[in-house]
Amino acid sequence: MSAIEILGLEKTYPVGFWRKRPKRALKPLSLTIEEGEIFGFLGPNGAGKTTTLKMLMGLVFPSGGTARILGRPIGDPAMQAQIGFLPEQPYFYDHLTPRELLTYYGQLSGLTTKEAERKVPEMLDRVGLRDAANVQLRKFSKGMLQRVGIAQSILHNPKVVFLDEPMSGLDPMGRHEVRDLIEQLKHEGKTIFFSTHILSDAEALCDRVAILHLGELRKVGAVADLTSAIGGRIELVWRGATIPQAFSALGAECHATGDTVRALVPESSQEAAMEALRREGLRLISLTPLRTSLEDYFVSQVKPSEATAGGKP
Ligand SMILES: Nc1ncnc2c1ncn2[C@@H]1O[C@H](COP(=O)(O)OP(=O)(O)OP(=O)(O)O)[C@@H](O)[C@H]1O
Ligand SMILES: [Mg+2]
Fold first, then answer.
1. Domain range list for the chain
2. At the fourth CATH level, which superfamily is domain 4-228?
3. Which fold has domain 233-290?
4. CA distance 171 to 180
5. Would you state the pLDDT for residue 230?
6. Ligand 1 pocket by C-beta < 6 Å: which residues?
7. Residue 14 pLDDT exceeds 90
8. What is the residue with the minimal CA distance to atom 6 of ligand 1?
9. What letter does residue 280 receive in the DSSP assignment?
10. 55-89, pLDDT tens digit by residue?
11. Residues 125-159 as b or e (16 or more Cβ within 10 Å = b)
């Protein structure tokens, strides 16, 4: 059984003073996420990530399509007991402490007082808030609040965890800790579906990613497959100041510094470039394949339609 099946889910919001102007936030989206996967839902601002998550959580009514989580339809209480959700901008009562808040949430999700007493400190430890367990939330930084939100989403040991921008507002250390936590959740057999802008985090964590733009699914696949699809470049470095003539025909980008030259050439021209260096008797110092990052791929996917949609530069 797939963990999440999204079947043509779409959303059009009525906007304007009379709410008559339709605003299409999500075009029909179909995606399947398998159990145990870490799935990254990527897209620029306004792509429709939060809208999708809210529909899956039953917080926003879809204009069309449907979805199944753990084989059950949206809104099914038995399914909802087995999922966790971190909203994009979680809001908590300022005057509660994280211990009180998590105990409250734990009881809401069916934990007994005894279970909550055991689980809450364990959870606070897990998200690095042990020392702040009894401090009121109004004194917390954004990053600390985000950790409380993450603790809340996994407290009841859900099978599928939905996180909307879990790394937002965290410093590099905090991001690293959240990454580790997401990996641990995967090792426990959970499925994680998270949205993010931070592509390096998606690259490091995700089994697969989907790229959404202007409400439309652009691509879905394993990060390695997506990034190898646009062909990489290689970097050649040699001693001397000579740049063989053949290099300009190969579309090379050359930079001479001191007594070395550094050239970037398309992967497909590697042999021709090496041959040109040999002919000139130039000594190669290094040859390094430059992997296309998810960031480059993302930009290449998102740019063309921004031009057609007249998006901001
Ligand atoms: N309640 C609403 N009423 C009208 N339009 C909305 C509503 N919520 C979202 N939208 C619009 O739907 C589109 C998608 O928004 P959404 O919040 O899902 O994007 P997102 O990918 O989560 O963006 P971000 O990265 O900024 O969080 C945007 O154009 C947004 O303005
Ligand atoms: Mg959002």
1. 4-228, 233-290
2. P-loop containing nucleotide triphosphate hydrolases (3.40.50.300)
3. Alpha-Beta Plaits (3.30.70)
4. 14
5. 63
6. 13, 15, 23, 25, 43, 45-51, 88
7. no
8. 13
9. T
10. 999 999 999 999 999 999 999 999 999 999 999 98
11. ebbbbeebeeeebeebeebbbbbbbbbbbbbbebb
